[in-house]
Write a structure and sequence with these properties.
Elements (H helix, E strand, L loop, with lengths): L7 H10 L7 H13 L1 E4 L7 H12 L13 E4 L4 H8 L5 E6 L9 H14 L3 E5 L2 H5 L3 H15 L3 E5 L8 H13 L4 E3 L11 H18 L4 E3 L7 H15 L11 E3 L2 H14 L12
Helix pairs in contact: 1-9, 2-10, 2-11, 3-4, 5-7, 8-9, 9-10
Length: 293
């Protein structure tokens, strides 16, 4: 796997340029509806409970009863212990059940424990597994260890899709982000994902652009599409639309679907709904008019 050097100045300048695009009213409405459909609505807290998961799943299936044209979100993302309940609640709605695994967010357990975590989530009904890579091994040059773990997790996923979390906030350089992205893709990732949301910085536009360009290079070389999931820190509709502009101008229209692009978020959906209310009525809805979960 050749080493690639990223031009930091150029990447950050190009990422910033996507924020200058003008999005008109009709395009904005379509963009907001697209963002909503791409969200992995997430709760990954120590205080998670059955009640919280129920509220999350209800909102995922019907984001806002007063906006019936807003489709369900792409997925709910929960800890493995809540997968079976989420599976029951989303039923045949089309909403996927994603579960973090492999000792999220640190990944600091042995491989057999990680694989048991994955198998338990899949057995409980997870459609998608979000795994964390061994960042310590990666940063110390043990790339084969990282690759072998991803391959083992991919095998444990069976029919479930695998999203590989790089935790880019700990990778230190854009060059490392490229190398980790290439390693994850070569080892069987269906998606590559920026962050757990537990480390700062989480998703940023420059890091996401570097990962999108890596996906583009892989597609041009092999014809294989890989999905992308920025996660953590994307909380406003305006920011999400900037990400869609970047996605379209980097990878093209084929990736503008929940099958190939997701936002990992807990609060983004609420801001999208507030913006849609404003477009429909000409007035902002009050925050208390949109449910928290």
């Amino acid at each position: 796997m050749p080493n690639r050097t990223v031009d930091k100045v150029a990447v950050e300048a190009r990422a910033a340029s996507f924020k200058t695009r003008s999005i008109k009213k009709d395009s904005k409405r379509q963009g907001l509806l697209m963002v909503s459909s791409m969200i992995d609505l997430t709760t990954l807290e120590g205080k998670d409970s059955a009640a919280k998961v129920r509220a999350l799943c209800q909102k995922a299936v019907q984001p806002d009863a007063s906006l019936p044209h807003v489709s369900p979100v792409a997925a709910v993302c929960v800890y493995p212990r809540w997968v079976s309940l989420a599976r029951e609640l989303v039923a045949d709605s089309g909403v996927k059940v994603a579960s973090v695994a492999t000792a999220f967010p640190s990944g600091q357990v042995d491989l057999e424990t990680k694989l048991a975590d994955v198998r338990a989530a899949v057995t409980a009904g997870a459609d998608e597994i979000d795994m964390v890579i061994h960042r310590g091994a990666f940063l110390s040059g043990q790339l084969q260890v990282v690759a072998d773990e991803i391959r083992a997790v991919k095998d444990a996923c069976a029919a479930a899709h695998l999203k590989v979390i790089l935790e880019t906030g700990e990778l230190e350089t854009y060059d490392n982000v490229v190398r980790a992205s290439e390693l994850a893709i070569a080892s069987g990732a269906d998606f590559i994902k920026t962050s757990t949301g537990k480390v700062s910085p989480a998703a940023t536009m420059p890091v996401t652009l570097v990962m999108l360009e890596t996906i583009r290079s892989h597609f041009l070389a092999t014809g294989q599409m890989i999905g992308m999931k920025p996660a953590g820190g994307i909380s406003t509709a305006k920011d999400a639309l900037h990400y869609l502009v970047m996605l379209k101008e980097t990878l093209g229209d084929a990736w503008l679907t929940p099958e190939w692009f997701r936002f990992g978020a807990s609060s983004l959906l609420n801001d999208v709904l507030l913006q849609l209310h404003r477009l429909e009525s000409g007035q902002y809805a009050a925050h208390y008019d949109v449910t928290e979960s």
